[in-house]
Amino acid sequence: MRRMLTVLAAGVPLAAAVYLPSASAEPRTTSTPFTCAAPSVKAPTGTKVESVTAVSQPGGTVQGTGILQGTVTDVPAYCEVTVTLTHSGADDHAKVRTWLPVSGWNGRFQGLGGAAYLAGDNNPGLATAVKNGYAAVTTDAGVDDALDTSWALNSQGQVNTALLKNFASRSQHEASVVGKEVVDAVYGKRPAYSYFLGCSTGGRQGYMEAQRYPDDYDGILANAPAVNWDEFEVATLWPQVVMNNEKTHPSSCEFNAFTAAAVKACDELDGVKDGLVNDPSRCDFDPRRLIGTKVVCEGKELTITAADAAVVRKIWDGPRTTSGKKLWYGVPIGADINALAGADPFPVPAAWTKLWVAKDPSLDLSTITYSRFTELFKQSQAEYDKVIGTDDPDLSAFRKSGGKLLTWQGDADQYIPAQGTVQYRVRVERELGSATKVDDFYRLFLAPGTVHCGLNKGDGTTDDLGALTAWVEHGKAPKTLPATLINADGQSVARDLCNYPRVLRYTGHGDPALASSFKCVLPSRH
Question: What pLDDT score was predicted for residue 344?
Fold first, then answer.
């Protein structure tokens, strides 16, 4: 449970990081005196405003709610405006919360995404935004906490389509509309620049904004995005399906041994041993090389078997049909296999498969055969791609609006395979004509050795928001994304992350801990 909560917390945008405003973000003078009072709010199209409240908050230390928690200190005083919306016939109650700093507003606006089944921020992101001078908005979409899926099915056992639509797309758009209206009412002017920030579920929401509501934000920071939701959510049950069908359950120590061996074998593919695999797609480590190896686990000596190696091989390879057709990507080599292959299925894909796909809360996931897995995978695609897939490659309207989309994702992401994000980027290039055209407004950076939503959450750092604001406000497109990464030995190393498709390669000289010792090159295909 502790591991699960840590990872879910990593999906909450800005929960632990503090981004200071750039020099251009001077406090703006407003045309009306600041008053924390409930403004008159016009309901977004298709909604009705149920209530509007305003509460003056003293700031100080702000605690996160729900299972994700989180703490932000030294938060300045702010006004919290809550607008509750409902959709005709839906009987939903979506709360849109806007936090506005009493003084020092920098003229900017932030929309904040969620994590797992939490549709929005649980306070730390809002508090960090206010601390850095932003007015910020988030929405609960009418659903509850990160692992609460009680809203999935109605009393007749049918999918609650209204709440799913809220969670999938429309509530974040409505939050943007309402939040800006509140900012205008309180400060007497609309924000000069608007940004959306999110990771995981929040990253998917950012992509949805770009795809369906291209005028909502000037800049979108959408990291480790849960796009291709209908596919990867079922696909991430694959490790459990493999172990159950092969009747082989390697221990966590054995899984760690496979991962460590693969990283060691592929470490020097970039020209130097630095504890990082800079291009996992070139890593073809065969797990059968460990057959017969002794592993000490909790005081017991275990011997890795051919069956163990076969399970790992299938998990890395990813889900396939019984005839061998590839369905989706597997756990990346270098990522923690235990995250999805633990004693119990990871709750997010487990809930999706049981409730939304099978519509059977009592479904025993341990009984899913390979053929049944394929059926569930294809059913999820057929029913939910257009609802929550968030994989429409046509970003032409977002490009035309002048918007900028910036994404980073860890190559060692244990929950959302980075190759799904890469595939989406490639599809956008095909849709719009060339990589150059896409680079004008959408850039992807892959972080070696980095876990799900890892940067700025204890597994390295990067000033991604600073890079995005410089791109939006000054036209400085990021050629690289400077970062501090944590290598396999737990050491901090500096790297300038490369704009996809380029990867890092050692220059042949210099300290491997320094970014200057590496250059970005097109990947080798041999």
Answer: 95
